[in-house]
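#struct-pred

JT: dropping the chains for the assembly here, can someone run the whole complex?
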Amino acid sequence: MSTPALATFDLTKDFSIGFWRKRPYRALDRLTLEITAGEVFGLLGPNGAGKTTTLKLLMQLIFPTSGRAELLGRPLGELSVKRRIGYLPENPYFYDYLTAEELLTYFAGLFGYTGREGRTRASRLLDQVGIGAERRLQLRKFSKGMLQRVGIAQAIINDPELVIFDEPMSGLDPLGRRDVRALVLQLRDRGCTVLFSSHVLGDAEALCSRVAILARGRLIADGSLSDMLAFKARGWELVVAGIDERSVPVAGSRVRRIVQIGYGRYAFELPLEPPPEQLMAELTAAGAHLVSLNPIRESLEDFFIEHVTAPDVTSIRREVAGESRP
Amino acid sequence: MKATAQIAINVFRESVRDKVLYNLVLFAILLIGASYLLGQLTAGQDVKIIKDLGLSATSLFGVFIAVFIGIGLVSKEVERRSIYALLPKPIYRYQLVLGKYVGLLLTLAINVAVMAVALYAVLLYVSSGVPEIVRRGWDAPALDPALLKAIGLILVELMLITAIALFFSTFSTPILSAAFTFGLFIAGHFSADLRNFDQVVDSPSAVRLARGLYWVLPNLAQFDVKAQVVHGQPVSLGYMALASGYAALYIAMLLAVAMYVFSRRDFK
Ligand SMILES: Nc1ncnc2c1ncn2[C@@H]1O[C@H](COP(=O)(O)OP(=O)(O)OP(=O)(O)O)[C@@H](O)[C@H]1O
Ligand SMILES: [Mg+2]
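RK: done, full complex below.
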């Protein structure tokens, strides 16, 4: 159990871009990562962060510029290892001319499950991902979400020990998302290691024991969610109603942010210190009445925003707040 | 090896579901059938023209199938991104190239067989009404088994052309691959002329270039024994073996390079 399910060592990938004069573009920069067997690991990051690049490197769809990686304790490319791994590509696409059933039977065959065994497996997995009678349709007639389901089914057709999903929730309806969440937990309970990429932080919060955050090809954080996020209050959100605009400046420099929610209704974001009682008293004196006072806990999203896109996102928020002022 | 066979079977399934294939085969059979009409026009003199046309149609449409399906084999997987799901399966990349090749050969072999049957059927039909006396004057019997030699060499040539198409398609776009393959097909039929280039041109460097090309380009003219067969001249088994050996060597080289290129490629 001591060998990690997955490890990368200074994994780096340069793409050459530019039509006339090619120059290297670093999509992934010295990524060193280790995933323990049995855990559900989330690879997070904004668009273009290098998530898909990382996963493709692990699947040897592309080759690293430098660095290396190991899956299940072995270097990449060994058939015996590939046999124990499942992979869902980003926005999967398959063969137009095959039906879902034929595709899964074909892939089962590549894992050595031929004949009746392959067909049984195929139909069991299609049941599992909720593809019903459509399985007899050619894949060209499948919708995006249905293809995604087929993609998930083909990724686990060999009962893998390690599954790598590139954006498993993409294109799925709410029911589909719920199913995939349940499936990930089911895989984990079976002892399967799951690595998935996502920019839906809620999925990561609901599923992962550990996450890594990539931005611009670099690893900016990794660790268990509970370590990464101090799950304690880091401030207060105070909502009051019934004050007029002129009393708002009373809050002064003690607030981090003021958002007008409706007419005479404001949300103040306060730091943890000093305690909010003083300001509450002053606002009440100015005619406001209290709607709510809540501690603000750090969420993965805050963390993400803080570390990845801080300047842009806050400026957008300010604009929105400014516009809503009467 | 099993994986290669499964990939090959899937290619076969893909091509039999491809409308292009049916159109090509249908057209070839129509053409062979139409040669019957031409045979009528020349007043049942000989079945030569039917044989000639039938063999030409088999070869030409075989080339179309080899090129149009061959160029798409690998590039379509890449373009449509189905390769992302396929390559992580427990297969080596070279098996994919090999499986694709074998699968298309299977398709081609069946198509050529169908066309051969059609040709023999037309010949049987045409010759059945012809009196014995007239038939004895023909260079070769109507249902001449030697036709199979010509058809066999057509198949060997198609194997080579498929390998060329596959070779280009492992690193180039379908349109370029088609252009290159047809280019080589045409050049390959004239490459024998390059050997005697010095009789036409004085420039030693041009002659050297021609010699070089002669050795690099596939010599496809040697697979064309239509004229001999149609005129009842013998084609020795030795000749067939030599031509097939040449093709096997050439195919092995093309596939080796294609596999090497394909194994190192990034699928971005
Ligand atoms: N084939 C390519 N050629 C050049 N640059 C590329 C190529 N593929 C990816 N990149 C660049 O590499 C970077 C990382 O891309 P990648 O697809 O890994 O991002 P991602 O994290 O998966 O994003 P998303 O959330 O949008 O899927 C991007 O800046 C992208 O522009
Ligand atoms: Mg991606």
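JT: nice. The interface with chain B takes residues 15, 56, 59-63, 79-80, 82-83, 85, 87-98, 102, 106-107, 109-112, 114, 151, 154 of chain A (CB under 8 Å). The longest strand of chain A covers residues 23-35.
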